[in-house]
Write a structure and sequence with these properties.
Elements lengths: L1 H20 L3 E7 L6 E3 L5 E7 L9 E7 L10 E2 L3 E2 L6 E2 L10 E9 L12 E5 L12 E2 L18 E8 L4 E11 L1 E6 L2 E2 L15 E8 L8 E9 L9 E2 L3 E2 L10 E10 L4 E5 L5 E4 L2 E5 L3 E4 L18 E2 L1 E2 L6 E4 L7
Parallel strand pairs: 2-9, 15-26
Antiparallel strand pairs: 1-3, 3-7, 4-5, 4-6, 4-8, 8-9, 10-25, 11-16, 11-21, 12-15, 12-19, 13-14, 13-16, 17-18, 19-20, 21-24, 22-23
């Protein structure tokens, strides 16, 4: 009986201790719907979290957010909200110091339960900015210089899609490397012969005169000491559609911003000594006709394996290459498409 009373007392003490040390816990921190997004271009990203806890009638009565430039930062040198009385835990807009381009920010949150008891600080999450201003972008639109057919029937003939490539050398130990890229209508990117990321039919269709989406990839592990090669394979997508007539008479090429396939990209390499190097698309890139001889959103793709160019996106490529041509791209603002690829 004595032992039973002791065990009961220990159990009650444990329950009391748990109640004192285990309030609500913020988990699954996200920024603009993504966990640790690699490429934010909005000046006020929205921060969210989920709540975890044991017991009944648990609720958040307040929160506190700190954003820092270091994973170990606890001062909130970029933004510190202090205690905010609110039950909101989604879409809290960032309101700190202006975000700098190409920078990783770390953030954490703690919440207060219905009794005003604070939780422990969450594990740190991060978001990384991309180009925040138009002047941050250091690439230009390039293509193969080919012209749009004059006759509607010529759009249905073979039209080999351009390949683009650039050979470059690293200048020391690479700490991190990012690829920022958009290709109209569609593109696939390669580094040293290997496809970058898992995206298909990228970028998403937008009104190109207003907005053009680009993706951000972590390519640190894809680079090698010394010489490297980058490659881009282009397709027509929605930027170079067939002259299909809607309602029997209206050619949608007359109502959309269209043009020949082109790409706009930059590789940004940060070295261990803190120096950075940017390799943007320009006339120093090379181009050649690729094995995709026809492609259409509606009619599919014709791929001629006989036209493949060995090592086209790697070192020592075969084929006949010429200088890429600067293109007059659409006027839309380049805007980052949130990527879930993390470093």
């Amino acid at each position: 009986m004595q032992l039973k009373r002791i065990l009961t007392a220990l159990l009650l003490c444990a329950q009391v201790a748990t109640a004192q040390t285990s309030p609500l816990t913020p988990v699954s921190l996200s920024c603009d719907y993504r966990q640790n997004p690699l490429g934010i271009s909005t000046p006020a990203p929205r921060l969210s979290w989920m709540l975890k806890g044991a017991g009944r009638d648990l609720r958040q009565s307040a929160y506190e957010i700190m954003v820092s430039t270091s994973a170990q930062g606890s001062r909130g040198d970029v933004w510190s909200t202090g205690k905010v009385s609110s039950g909101e835990n989604i879409h809290i807009p960032f309101q700190g110091a202006p975000l700098q381009a190409f920078t990783r920010y770390w953030w954490r949150v703690r919440v207060y339960d219905g009794n005003g008891k604070p939780s422990a600080w969450s594990q740190p999450a991060w978001f990384e900015t991309a180009a925040m201003q138009a002047s941050d972008w250091q690439g230009k639109w390039i293509g193969d210089g080919s012209k749009t057919p004059d006759k509607p029937e010529d759009f249905y003939k073979d039209d080999p899609m351009p390949l683009l490539r650039k050979q470059f050398g690293t200048k020391g130990k690479v700490a991190s490397a990012r690829l920022y890229i958009s290709g109209l209508g569609y593109y696939e990117a390669y580094i040293n012969g290997k496809k970058v990321g898992d995206h298909v039919l990228d970028p998403g269709w937008t009104t190109y005169n207003k907005r053009i989406l680009y993706s951000v990839y972590d390519i640190t592990a894809m680079l090698q000491p010394g010489q490297n090669a980058a490659g881009i394979m282009l397709g027509n997508g929605w930027y170079n559609p067939l002259p299909l007539k809607m309602w029997g008479s209206r050619n949608w090429r007359d109502f959309l911003k269209t043009g020949r396939p082109m790409a706009n990209a930059m590789l940004r390499i940060t070295y261990a000594d803190g120096k950075t190097e940017v390799i943007g698309t320009d006339e120093t890139w090379q181009t050649a006709a690729g094995p995709v001889v026809r492609n259409s959103v509606y009619l599919g793709e014709h791929y001629d394996a006989r036209r493949e160019i060995k090592n086209w996106s790697a070192l020592q490529p075969a084929g006949n290459w010429k200088a890429a041509v600067a293109a007059s791209g659409p006027e839309g603002i380049m805007e980052a498409r949130c990527s879930r690829l993390s470093a």
